[in-house]
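> run fold Cytochrome P450
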Amino acid sequence: MDWLSIVLWLVIGIVSAFFLFFKKRYAYWKDRGVLYVEPTIPFGNLPFRKKTHFKDIIANIYNKKNEKSPFLGAFFFATPVVVATDLDFVQTVLIKDFSNFHGRGMYVNEIDDPLSAHMFSLDGEKWKSLRAKLSPTFTSGKMKFMFPTVVEVADRFNASLAELAKGSVILEMKDLLARFTTDVIGTCAFGIECNSMKTPDSEFRRYGAKVFDDPPHPPFLQLLASQYPNIARKYFHMRVFRKDVIDFFMDTVRETIAFREKNNVRRNDFMDLLIQLKNGGSLGDEHSKKLGKLTIEEVAAQAFLFFLAGFETSSTTMMFALYELSLNPAIQEKARQEIDEVLNKHDGMITYESIKEMVYVDKIISETLRKYPPVANLIRKCAHNFRLPNSDIVIEEGIIVAIPAYSIQHDPEIYENPEVFDPERFAPEQVKNRHPVAFLGFGDGPRNCVGLRFGRMQSRIGLVTLLKNYRFKPCEKTTIPMEFSEINPLLSPKYGMHLLVEKV
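> ok
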């Protein structure tokens, strides 16, 4: 047999083995009697080449839901995945049987990328310990203490905006709002005056933007890393964040802590609370207890998470709210009327008490989070074999469960006319009549967003400040209908957010 024949048979053997592997693998759900969406070799139910946001990948599966099953089987490459399609099942995963679905199965590399080991990504005892340590930092009392700081930053934001919005002007609101929330989080998390409105290219703004706009790897590689974490860590040393981003935030945290401890500086902000935990103290909460000291890397990772979650999700929530209010002027005027009426009762001051009275503004925030949830899909990992109630179907240990928050919140069977922006969906009587997990803007269960109080507070203050002083309208640069960026893991507009801004 000549060498050409040998090579040919070798290639035939490899290709045959490749297809036999996938054929066997793709029989996984069929062998278990589970309804599933037919995969394609070798990507499974992931798109081939076409740039698609992950929310749309999952939506394509969710939209094939069948009332005979609470979920559909799918495949990411060769890995079987559960896509939840029934709200009772979602409630089981997030709340009722949380102990069996407490992990997220996200890629973490503590050695090469210490910032990746933050509370959102960690699982098991590490997550449980950090959650117990950090939950007291987000009590309503702590939020009330931070409230004046956020208002102060909002006032500076308004002053800078007033210089730009003389008469009527088209402004790119995505960047402006990200600068506002960067300044808030920079102050509350690091005690640093970023002043991003005056210096748009500030280091905090620049490195924060890089996380989402310039990731180190394309989405499919990040997904592969989560599927095969040991290989990604051991052989490829894959990071979640860019090296320059890691270095900047690690250096900033080290310098901030060193300065505060040397000069005995106390600011009663998030960093102070982390330093307290680093030095082995509890946070004074009656239920808190000493759970071991935080390392400098753990402090940096949690401060980094607070920064990312605080600046990006709140800024995009306010941005999408302004977008919808520009398209729905009657809703915008109703919100402005409520703001004026409440502030008139409080001497024109934005206070903790006055903000709480603005229930319609809060409904607008909730409806924005329904239509534009920053985290479009929630991920949970099965810890032990789980048998579905009243069924022979078993979700095996290690299987990922994807909960399509975006699809659920756009399902016409759950929300009538889901593309219509209607804040009254969040009137108490309507909320009461819906399934408890029909709204997942902050997740749900023990792994819901730990900073939801801060996020709502920041978004309320920002929106009230803007609506009190400016009117927002669509312009020729406004993207209608909205198009989303495919590379940003969070929901974000593809072409920015251009609106016409007028002084009230």
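Residues 32-503 form a domain with the Cytochrome p450 fold (CATH 1.10.630.10).
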